[in-house]
Amino acid sequence: MTTTPKRVLSGVQPSGKLHLGNYFGAIRQHIALQEEMQCFYFIADYHALTTLEEATRRRIDREKIKPADRAETLRENTFDVALDYLALGLDPDKAVFFRQSDVPEVAELAWIFSTVTNMGLLERAVSYKEKVEKGIDASVGLFFYPVLMAADILIYRSHLVPVGKDQVQHIEMTQDIAGKFNRTYGDIFPIPEYRLDKEPKVPGIDGQKMSKSYNNTIDIFAEGKALQKTVMSIVTDSTPVEAPKDPERCNVFALYSLFATEEEKAALAARYRAGGLGYGEAKKMLLEKINAYFGPFRERRKQLAAHPDQVETLLQRGAQRARAEARKTMALVRQAVGMKAASMG
Ligand code: ADP
Ligand code: TRP
Questions:
Q1: For the whole prediction, is pTM greater than 0.90?
Q2: Helix axes 279-305, 251-259, angle to 10 degrees
């Protein structure tokens, strides 16, 4: 008996620079999964349109934004995520890696799903409410976001969706939509499960959770003086150098622990407790760890960035594989709802 291998899928929004929280909380696990299962990873550029204005304002002074700047922001952010993932070890021969908008069938499926999705379901979406509270325009697209996400997941008939806690409600909505579609038109979709990323809750330089919204990040691809400045500005208490310190209450130690072996952690913890170690020295040790860990990734990213056409070719190849799957699903869906299995053209 042959069993179909489980298919993993996840999407990343191209919304700016990635930081250590993203890496240790999500990306590292996603990349590791490519060794175990069939993975589909995509850059969610259709989704990013819902917050493109904010992303553009992060790059350009509000007064100076021209229409072309928005398109440029999306293109640049999308390319950046592609570089980041490829540099960090995503292997396009193992995982199917592509840009969401290169498979436009997903927008068609989202429309069909919208007709089996209750308003009430979407009205309960916490993420929509939070975004509107933060000042993001309440567009229909922002409200519709979870339906497009259901289409992302189901068009590839994925089983497992690794995500952070904030996305769980969206996956539950996907389960709802898949169930409703299956009951209405016949069994086409597997009901996907989420898998929570093991979030170590990486602290930012101010001790709150690291997040681009808090301006407290250490970016994965920062280097040189800029990185040094960020690490040196990590907030610590004012215990003098000679005094013993509690490693468990120190942001520098928490960040160091992400990179260190158990022995290295124990050794540094012992020095904290013994006194005589200043926070400045601990920060230098952390900086060295960051450089040693991400150094090779930075080099790889620079090489990739120098060959944008090769990156584009990889994305196109991924899109072809993804699109072939999407078209198979759409043929079933169109038939099931009473349309011609393939659209014209
Ligand atoms: P941000 O808070 O910077 O906007 P995102 O919400 O885009 O980050 O995060 C993408 C994923 O990265 C999350 O779903 C989560 O799994 C992970 N992540 C983000 N910040 C952290 C953090 N400080 N600690 C652990 N994981 C994090
Ligand atoms: N909404 C997700 C986020 O902000 C990104 C995303 C879009 C996604 N479509 C998806 C994640 C499908 C998993 C599956 O992080």
A1: yes
A2: 50
